[in-house]
């Protein structure tokens, strides 16, 4: 893995989008009757089901967020392999016990 791939990593933008989607998805689950009906019919609701309900603007934001999330994973792996950064916990991924602001 080349650190050059991580040039586009923007932690502030990642956190901003993470917060935006956390709030947006919670709002959708509380207010969208179609999603509520879908949840009552099946106890499972997949992320791609929620993304399908996004506006075009939100879908663009989601694509940006997913690209940043991929970069974050690469950065975390790079740091882990070089003995710095966050710890890896099986089943949870790279975790920082002091940071509960992102999913």
Summarize the structure.
By secondary structure, this protein is mostly helical. It has helices at 11-31, 33-41, 47-52, 56-81; strands spanning 87-89, 93-95.
Write down the overall geometry.
elongated
Low-confidence stretches: none
What is the alpha-carbon Rg in Å? 16 Å
Query: Number of folding domains?
Result: 1
Integer average pLDDT: 83
Structural class: mainly alpha
Percent of residues in beta strands? 5-15%
Number of helices: 4
Euclidean distance between termini CA atoms? 25 Å
Order of helices and strands: HHHHEE
Share in helix: 55-70%
**Strand order within the widest sheet?**
1-2
- The total count of strands amounts to 2
Largest sheet: 2 strands, antiparallel
What tags apply to this protein structure?
103 residues, 4 helices
